[in-house]
Amino acid sequence: MNTNSNAYTVIYTTLVVVIVAAVLAFTAMKLKPSQNANAKAETLRQMMSAAQIKPTDELYATKNAGILQLYADNIDKAYTIGLDGEQNGTLSTEKSKIDLVDNLKPQDKAIKAGDAVTLPVYVFKSGIQVIPIYGAGLWGPIWGYIAFQPDGKTIAGAYFDHDSETPGLGAKIKDEAWFREKFVGKQVKFGSEPLFNLAKNAEATGADNAIDAITGATMTSKGLNDALNVWFKAYEKHLGNKAETQNEEEE
User: Fold this and answer.
1) What CA–CA distance (Å, rounded) separates 52 from 70?
2) What mean pLDDT comes out for the span 14-21?
């Protein structure tokens, strides 16, 4: 074949593209299990950081296998609920086949549309239960995990992450421990509006459900506030019932 002909060029280019595509597909297939394992361990780290199982830096210094074991040792049960607050599924907590609901974007859309959802609840042996939140920041998605005391209204801990928020500003929701620590001891006011308030000078009100927004990160703070309220509302019939029961017992 004439190597200078158009036909040769087309055939050669096609073969190179096919070979490269095959190599990339094979590599992606081989890496997929490892990527999935890393993603699962990352979710568990965030969840257990919120639940105060161990300090965040210790969790991130622990290898994936150790994280799976730590979760299996500390989790009591995990299940999913609908917007009616009723359980509609179970999640395995066995180390070898841990189930998570970590693709939160579809759940966020379903919550806002009032469609059927499978919202996860992770209950640890300490009595602390953890739920996720998800929303939109300034540049991309933001998400996190909120841990509640057994009363279903008092926050025991929090962890937040983001896709592309501005370093030194919006990224502080993840990078700054002091911001996460501000949530500890705060309460979600189920049955009121807003359920939670993350805004400029919010703490000046003295409300138990108020935290000041991050200075210079207005849009990220607003996005996080919206996410908290949307997801807290979605869990209201589940967590709110626990809070009401606790109040009746105290009275």
Assistant:
1) 12
2) 73
Helix 6-50 with 64-74: angle, nearest 10 deg: 40
Query: Domain count of the chain?
Result: 1
Band of residue 126 on the pLDDT scale cut at 50, 70, 90: very high
* 27 lies in some domain: no
Name the token pair of 92. 């395995």
Rounded Cα distance, 116 and 204, in Å: 38
Q: Indicate whether 204 belongs to any domain.
A: yes
CB 147 within 8 A of CB 155: yes
Confirm whether 20 is domain-assigned.
no
Q: Are 140 and 95 in contact (CB under 8 A)?
A: no
Q: Got the DSSP string for 144-189?
A: EEEEE-TTSSBEEEEEEEESSPPTTTTTHHHH-HHHHHTTTT-B--
State both tokens at 5. Answer: 């002909």
The band of 74, judged by pLDDT with boundaries at 50, 70 and 90, is: very high
Instruction: Judge whether 36 lies within some domain.
Output: no
pLDDT band at 19 (very low <50, low <70, confident <90, very high): confident
Name the residue range of residue 181's domain: 46-250
Give the type of residue at 173. I
Nearest partner of 171 among 139, 200, 195, judged by Cα: 139
